[in-house]
Amino acid sequence: MNSLRKSNSWTKLEQLADETGDDRIADYFKADPDRFEKMSLRLGELFLDYSKNKISPQVMDALLELAEQSPLQRRREQMFAGDAINVTEERPVLHIALRNLGNQPIVVNGRDVMPDVQASLEKLRAFTEQVRSGQWLGYTGKRIRNVVNIGIGGSDLGPSMVCRALLDYQHPDLSVHFISNVDGRHLKKVLKGLDPETTLFIVSTKTFSTQETLLNANSAKRWFLEQTQSTTADMGQHFVAVSTNIKAATEFGIREDSIFQFWDWVGGRYSLWSSIGLPIALSIGFDAFIELLDGAHTMDQHFLNAPLEANMPVLLALIGIWNINFLGAETQAIIPYDQALHQLPAFLQQLDMESNGKSVDIDGNPVSHATGPIVWGQTGSNGQHAFFQLLHQGTRFVPIDFIASLKADEDTKEHHFALLTNMLAQANAFMNGDTQDKQYASCTGNRPSNVLLLDELSPRNLGALIALYEHKVFVQGAIWNINSFDQWGVQLGKRLANDISRDIDGKSNEYDPSTQGLMDIVNRHLAGDKADSGATAKAGLVAEESGDQ
Ligand code: G6Q
After folding, report:
1. Where are the beta strands (DSSP E) in 325-399?
2. Is the pLDDT of residue 170 over 50?
3. Could you tell me if the CB of 245 is within 6 A of ligand 1?
4. Is 378 in the same domain as 515?
5. Does 155 sit in the ligand 1 pocket, CB within 6 Å?
6. Is residue 162 within a helix (H) or strand (E), and if so which, with residue range?
7. Mutate to test the pocket of ligand 1, among 88, 149, 152, 245 (most ligand atoms within 8 A of CB)
8. pLDDT band at 235 (very low <50, low <70, confident <90, very high)
9. Which residues is 49 bridged to in the sheet?
10. pLDDT band at 538 (very low <50, low <70, confident <90, very high)
11. What per-residue confidence (pLDDT) applies to 459?
């Protein structure tokens, strides 16, 4: 059994949770008029106010003691040194190397990885500039107008979220689209209206073995060849790949010099900083992509060097641990008051839930405490008119992170004013509540939140924001003593999808009656279609299995 719960600092926090159970957050401000100054922190153009948490000064001290006594600081050093901290996959975890713009050597197995990182950035720069300037032409000599990224999970969510967040920076004559779902309607919807002669596909898959991506890539290839009546040789100008699996990418038909590489030490959900960020660089330009990396690098340096009590990712992580492990929160809401960040909750959902959705610690023992929360959310003020009711008056305890950028568009300042004041009103209401004569109209308040303000939603600030959450997740994983960097549950899904696709026509009786019954219904229903499309579908579905992600 994992021993964290028996540690002194954990026991102290349990006692404090009992003792402060009836405390009101609002009273903490009466007791200390400087609480806002003490419990807020600026890093460059990011400002974090964490004063509206149900955290007394004693609780904060005990949380910092927990961090101090945990493996956090050792594990952080190991990560930055390139040690194989992803123990189940025996790999280093080095997304920080991808934005190590100072180029300090990071040595893995006796070899500095930085020259490789530099070379891949250089390749990204050259290609990005060719496409954006119109030098890179389609096979009929027309310039590229649309880029379609085909990938899923870590090979989709990061680039897609960032491209949407930075739409204001997008090249005026280049649109970037994303196909992720294996649902053919997703593919058809994106391809509809695109001109194959001016479209560039990026097949983005670390393993080049993911069922959904291979099916979508094969269908896109077929679409291109049918629409253009061209040959596979003409595909060269229209299909590039981002992958660690060069062999499979070339077998698919992509020229070797059009494959953008990265390495097994970049986890899927941490990969937007690598060549997986190609759609971002194409959309916002290479220089802005470097600014994104630089923003993350600044957060990396802060995380590495700032004392725990003034360390933004550490503080966010400790607040989360207090809410989850001592106050019983099961979920964490992410509410950006910024429409451009509408995909951020989905991105952070993957980052957090895939990383810390673990119940066995790093030594293989079952954990005896809750780990990663269910992360969810959507933009404000939309959420106010939907699910906020439950957050104000429901029986659940839901901590919230509010995120907003201060800079308004010149022509919609009035809107931005309303956006920000709505957010402030909500954070205030969640803490203070509202007492009315009628009990049904009263809101109890005392519900915690953090507010994160960006001076503006720039590539640099977005990079810092994403890295902040990456490190928050890392800190929680280190304190819980779990491996935040594997994803065997995801792997199970990939394996079973392949098995069921192989066995659906009834040759195996290894399945439980429910699964078998459903397979029979689906198989009978699809029988007609399978005659013509089955062969291609199966080729994609029963892809080479691999544990790499
Ligand atoms: C991320 C996960 C997962 C992965 C996808 C796509 O950390 O491992 O979301 O990114 O399954 O994998 P490929 O890039 O190999 O296609």
Report:
1. 331-336, 374-376
2. yes
3. no
4. no
5. yes
6. helix 157-165
7. 152
8. very high
9. 40, 451
10. very low
11. 98
Average pLDDT over residues 289-306: 98
Structure tokens at 89: 């996959």
CATH number at residue 149: 3.40.50.10490
**What is the per-residue pLDDT across 18-59, written as a single tens digit (0 to 9) for each?**
999 999 999 999 999 999 999 999 999 999 999 999 999 999
Confidence of residue 295 (pLDDT cuts 50, 70, 90): very high
What is the per-residue pLDDT for 240?
98
Q: Tell me, what's the pLDDT at 506?
A: 78
Is the shortest distance between the CB of 158 and ligand 1 below 6 Å? no
* DSSP 8-state symbol, 361: -
Nearest CA to ligand 1 atom 2: 268
Number of domains in the chain: 3
Q: Give pLDDT, residue 534.
A: 46
**SS3 label, residue 495:** helix
- The residue-averaged pLDDT of 198-226 equals 97
Cα 353 to ligand 1 centroid, rounded to whole Å:
14
Within a domain: 190: yes
Q: Whose CA is nearest to atom 9 of ligand 1?
A: 153
| 16 and 47 both lie in a single domain | yes
Ligand 1 atom closest to the Cα of residue 276 is 14
Residue 491 lies in a domain: no
Distance (Å) of CA 106 to CA 80, 93, 360, 362, 478: 8, 11, 30, 24, 21
Which of 490, 498, 545 for mutating ligand 1's site (highest number of atoms within 8 Å of CB)?
Answer: 490
Q: Is 549 in the pocket of ligand 1 (CB under 6 A)?
A: yes
Residue pointed to by tokens 């300042």:
413
Domain hosting residue 450, numbered range: 3-93+306-486
Q: Mean pLDDT of all residues in the chain?
A: 94
Among the listed residues 380, 356, 344, 386, the one whose alpha carbon sits nearest the alpha carbon of residue 484: 356
DSSP 8-state code for residue 193: T
Give the end of a domain, one of 245, 262, 288. 288
41, 179: one domain: no
Query: Does any domain span residue 494?
Result: no
Q: Looking at the structure, do residues 539 and 478 belong to the same domain, yes or no?
A: no
- Ligand 1 centroid–CA 303 distance in Å is 26
Q: Is the CB of 487 under 6 A from ligand 1?
A: yes
Q: What is the mean pLDDT of residues 361-371?
A: 95
CA of 213 to the centre of ligand 1 (A): 10
What spacing in Å lies between the alpha carbon of 155 and ligand 1's midpoint?
A: 6
Ligand 1 centroid–CA 206 distance in Å is: 7
* Percent of the chain topping pLDDT 90: 91
Q: Does residue 213 have its Cβ closer than 6 Å to ligand 1? A: yes
Whether residue 533 is predicted with pLDDT greater than 80 in this model: the reply is no
Q: State the amino acid at position 415 in one-letter form.
A: H
Q: What are the start-end ranges of the H helices in 134-277?
A: 157-165, 184-191, 211-228, 246-252
Determine the distance from the C-alpha atom of residue 66 to the mean position of all C-alpha atoms in its chain, rounded to a whole number.
27
Find the 87 Cα to ligand 1 centroid distance in Å: 18
Q: What is 290-303 written as a DSSP string?
A: HHHHHHHHHHHHHH
Catalytic residues, by residue number, are 354, 385, 494
Q: Are residues 331 and 258 in the same domain?
A: no
* pTM, full prediction: 0.95
What pLDDT was estimated at residue 520? 92
Q: Indicate the residue among 228, 259, 288 that finishes a domain.
A: 288
User: Is the domain of 149 the same as that of 87?
Assistant: no
Q: Residues 540, 419: one domain?
A: no
Residue 499 lies in a domain: no
Q: Is 86 in the pocket of ligand 1 (CB under 6 A)?
A: no
